[in-house]
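Lecture 7, part B: from sequences to assemblies.

Below are the input chains for today's worked example.
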Amino acid sequence: MTAIGATRLERPAQGMARALGTLVLVMGAAAAALATLDAVPAWVQGEPRGVRKAASVEEAERRLKARLFLPAYFPDTLRWPPRAVRLVVEDTTSVALSFDGQDGTPALVLVQTVGGPGPISPMVLPEGPPLQSSPLAVGDGEGTLSRVVGEDGSIWHEVAWTKAGARLALRGKVPVETLIKMARSAHREGR
Amino acid sequence: MPATRWVDLAGQAIFHTLVAALVIEALIRLWRVRDPRQRLAFRLFVLCYPLLVLPLLVVLAPERASDDFREGRALFSSQRWDDLRFLGSGLRHWWVGVFGGMGLALFLMDLVPLLLGRRVGLPRSAPPVSPQGQAAAAALEGVARSMGLRPPRLVFVEDGGPVLFCAGALATSLVVSRAAVDLLDPKEIRAALAHELAHLDRLDPGVSWLLMAGRALMAVNPAFQVVARAMARDAEWRADERAAAATGDRLALASGLLKLFRATEGRPAPPGRRNLPLAAALAEPIARARALDIETRCRRLLGPAPAPLPHGAARLFAAAASISSLLFFVV
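Predicted structure of the full complex, as structure tokens:
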């Protein structure tokens, strides 16, 4: 084959390679733009990607098609409704209800799993080694009462237990007796 | 089906079409697709996407609607935008509403004049007994024969300004006015008639009704409306190329086009032709857009016929497959 013939044969292949390169570039740019758009809401809210927000407890229940555990005992020192309802949908979904105290500062988080007793996602309840932990009876089951570092850096109490196939945790800057009373009164509406 | 699911599906149809349109337009420019037939094929995929591909995705892959898919595998989940709220509603609902309104406005801008134009009907035809009428009939006969087509019914208009267009989905006709014959020289008349015959040969008036039906189905989809309009322009370019090839005189078509444009500039559209509502208020931007459109067409005709892009079908298939695969992960 002559050199001219070889050049002529290369051209269509080069053209196709360039066309393919352009397609890959455009599709890559489109995918990057979509991923960026997807990340914007979480970025605006200062939440990690994967954490979704619901407008209310009812909306979270509607979205999950499941009833959530709520404490029948709710002290006057806390504000109802929750300031934020956050969800992390994984194999086992985790839901966190964040409550403020009457002074408007974060005071309590109720976290629970839906769809199984799997671990609570650390995206809604940051894990940390408990400063102190002891067993605690919650209803018919066993739980733990711990002292942990709360979201404001001070010492909070935490009650964690399992009930009706769900793992629950109450972490708050409230008296420990209040926390235990709330944990023991937790129930699902309609049950 | 609950209202949220409808919002979800409408949002997907709007957003998927927008992404498909942007990607296809980027490829048309980067690949320098100049052949109007190929441009039409690429844009047709965008129109087919929400009408065929998305319904197939919804039916064949119902797991895309699940939370697991949205949270774990989706590249983009529009539901996340509902976490950001404005005046009590999630932003996703807002943008579906805004885009839906834009789509509806674009659709009505074309539908209303179309329906009004049908009520008015075509201009009254006169027997082509005048020298101009006979010249038009003879030119039509000759051009149709050279293109291997049967000449359509000639609607010759003695009064009014220069008009030359084709109409009719089933019973097609070609409307020519005496003023148009006076305005154009014989070469330009032949080129302009060849352009209209090319439209009729491709059944463009009927296809435009099909396109309108598709636009009605996707009335709230702005990207669909814009791409459908772009396809109408591509159809004009395709008819230009066919006419230029049939007459062998690209310059005659360009000068005929320019003369007709100058003669009709600022005049209301003749009966049977579309015009936009609020035309008076929009007169200037519409005139500018029309002038730009004519200028582009003339520039194209001053150059040689655009060569088809090599491996056009393979490129279209690759683009369609890539876009469909990407949008599978957009919910």
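Note for the exam: The mean pLDDT of chain B is 89. Keep this in mind when comparing with the next example.
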